[in-house]
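The protein record minuted underneath.
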Amino acid sequence: MQPPQHLSGAVPASDHEGGAPGHPWQGIDLDVYERHMADARVGQLQRLRDITGEQLAAYPFRAVGVLGVAGGNGLDLIDPRSTDVVYGYDINPGYLDACAARYRGALGDRLRLIETSIDRSVRIEPVGLLIANLIVEYVGAEEFVAFAAANARSVDVLSCVVQRNDAAGFVSSTEDSSAFAGLASVSSDIDPEALTSAMSDAGFVDLGRRDYPLPNGKILVRQDFRTVPHP
């Protein structure tokens, strides 16, 4: 998959591999999603922005990729003076349009947005840091690891966040939670230890893990991996 060099918004799914019309995420309004995530009982929107800032600070590469970029939460933390390009991938074209409207002014042509689902058939552009926050749950651990392995030569560090649901259901309860009912068909719980093992088997080095407790008893788990250098 080779995205154009300059994009004014999302690239149509028909122009890229991996587009999946009718996917549940395509039917969830961005305002509803962000309102749900920002609810005090959920507490994930600001927490994920903070985590994105930590990921960017820990791995200050000049090329960054974001899987499941949605409306671009955290992209305001990217310094255009030290960043050459930011690739944002998402399955919802409306999310990408909103992301472009919010951040094109600050990032200019550095921001390149691609509409696609994420699976082992997708090839991304080379980046130093690839961020994948709350995306593994909707791809599935096996498919995500296969995607990572297929793109290992294009990524230096892969930093992902998964959600542990020990004390709550998969979708937290808010006034907007019914809008996410369709995600049950594409979501799965991810075990961080199992993900680390699978990534190791795929040739990735574990760089460490950090847990972030949430107000409702859930825990966000950040896991960082480095690709093994190729000769």
User: Anything to note?
Assistant: Residues 93-107 form the longest helix (15 residues).
